[in-house]
Amino acid sequence: MESVTADTYASLNVTVRIQEQALLGKKDYEALIQSPSYEGALALLESTPYSLNKETGNVEEGLIKRLQEAYQEAYKFSPHAGVIDLWGLRYTYHNLKVLFKEDYAQRDLSSMYLLLSKEEISSLKQAVTTGHADSLDPIILQAVRSVRRYINETGYINDISLLLDEAYLNHIASLAPSLENDDLQELVNRFIDLENLALILRAIPQGKGLGFLKATLNAHGTIQVPELVAALEAKDLDGLFALFQAKDYSEDFSSLLEGIKNAYLQHKEAFDLLDFDRQKNLLISQVLRKASLQAFGPLPVVAYLYFLENEVTNLRLILTAKASHLDTSKIKERMRPIYAE
After folding, report:
1. What residue segments make up the domains of the chain, in order of their start?
2. Three-state SS for 54?
3. Minimal CB count within 10 Å: which of 63, 222, 253, 314?
4. Looking at the predicted structure, is the pLDDT value of residue 42 above 50?
5. Cβ(116)–Cβ(67) below 8 Å
6. Any bridge partners for residue 53, and if so which?
7. Nearest to 27 by CA among 15, 19, 35, 37
8. Contact between 71 and 294 (Cβ < 8 Å)
């Protein structure tokens, strides 16, 4: 890979700074949330970059179009596609999930494709059906073959999503060192650690066994899987959460883990993970907010794509609530971090 210098991303970052100005701010969100109707919310978006099709009602098309344009530009102008792949590969592995389901169900699910990564659907489909595709990254091809082999051996089709989520984490873990950027390495490390914790918190109330967790916890986090498994085997929630609290992410996160632990000890049943998901997103955004102080390097474009994706998710949440006449009082609790905070 070409060596990364201080000004490698200087030109792209000038463009990113201009594009950031079009991201919605707190006042924009407040107006959307307070809008009395779905139509009123759409009217407020007319002066924004979102081309939402009010006639056909296909709002989702407008939201995805905004993301597609952003990813196309990012891949076109980024000095290293691997930087954009940190987020873009999620869509590659999403599309693989859809293609595997198409293959096993023998149904057309093309409406579920998300065309935001650089891999062509035709190449991914070829890999799923034949196990070969010369144009694909060998890491992706290996993941496809592993999933096919697992399904052939076990018949557990429902595990496809879980296996490909794991493959995505493995892929970005292998990619991060080559990007030669401490902030991006920290981002990937934190992302994998938090995904492992999320998996544990969802598995415990569901009664998932240690075998399941040993097979699905990602080995590329900064907290080693044997440490996590040892705490789980000993049913030591204090020890388990202490491993994450030692990361010193934030006081709020440590307090949150204490609350989750106490809720589980008291109720021994599924607990609301909304607060955890919110804190997880805040901890990822914490790394990316460093980009506002950086004129050089790859972090600004990665941060821009992250906050743009959050914006699309937030708009989808608000518009769905308005269209369904749902109570909007708790929208803010479910919103992802925004750029202007």
Report:
1. 15-79+299-340, 81-179, 181-293
2. coil
3. 222
4. yes
5. yes
6. 58
7. 35
8. no
Nearest to 334 by CA among 272, 258, 289, 291: 272
Any residues with CB less than 8 A from the CB of 304 and at least 6 apart, and which?
16, 19, 20, 70, 291
Report the C-alpha gap between 117 and 57 in whole angstroms: 26
Backbone angles phi, psi at 209, to 5 degrees: -80, 170
Higher-confidence residue of 263 and 113: namely: 113
CATH number of 81-179: 1.20.1690.10
* Burial 164-197, CB ≥16 within 10 A → b, else e: bbbbbbbbbbebbeebebebbeebbbbbbbbbbb
> 124: pLDDT confidence band, cut at 50, 70 and 90?
very high
Token digits for 1?
A: 């890979």
- Give the tokens for residue 190: 């934190």
How far is residue 304 from each of residues 6, 136, 149, 178, 338, measured CA to CA in Å? 19, 26, 38, 21, 10
The mean pLDDT of the chain is 89
101-105, 147-151, 216-220, 325-329: least confident range = 325-329
